Amino acid sequence: MLQMARFFFHVQESGRRIEDLEGTEVQDLAAAKRLGLAALCELITEQVKDRKLECGGRIEIEDEDGKVLLDLCAQCAITIMPPSDAQERRCP
After folding, report:
1. How much is the pTM?
2. Which uninterrupted H or E stretch holds 70?
3. Is residue 53 helix, strand or coil?
4. Is the pLDDT of residue 84 over 90?
5. pLDDT at 52 over 70
6. DSSP state, residue 35
7. Distance between CA atoms of 18 and 48, rounded to whole angstroms?
C-alpha cells in the first residue's frame, strides 16, 4: 500500500495569508509541488480575469510538523516570454 503524506498549502496574496488548516494528502513532496504550482496558476488566471496581476502571490508548502518545505512564487508557476522583435508592439 502506498504511503501518503499530508501537506499544507498556505496562500499569500494581496498582503494577506490564507492558512490551509486541513491539508491535502499526496504521494510525496514532488506531487505537493505540482499541486502548489497548479494552485498558483489558478490564482494567476483569476487575477488576469480581473485585469490585475500581482507578482507577489505565493504558496508555502508545509509538512505536518509545520516546517516550510517549499515557498513557491508566481514566477515559479509561469514563464513570461519576452516578445520577439517581429511581435513587439506598444500599448496605446
Report:
1. 0.78
2. strand 68-73
3. coil
4. no
5. yes
6. H
7. 20
For 3-13, write each residue's pLDDT tens digit.
Answer: 899 999 999 88
- Which residue is listed with cell 513532496? 29
Q: Are 7 and 63 in contact (CB under 8 A)?
A: yes
Checking 37-44 for CB contacts under 8 A at 24+ apart, the result is 37/72, 37/76, 37/77, 39/9, 39/11, 40/72, 40/73, 40/74, 40/76, 40/77, 41/77, 41/78, 43/11, 43/13, 43/74, 44/74, 44/77, 44/78
Q: What is the mean pLDDT of residues 61-74?
A: 93
Cβ atoms < 10 Å from Cβ of 7: 23
> In sequence order, which residues have a C-beta less than 8 Å from that of residue 47 and are 6 or more positions away?
53, 54, 57
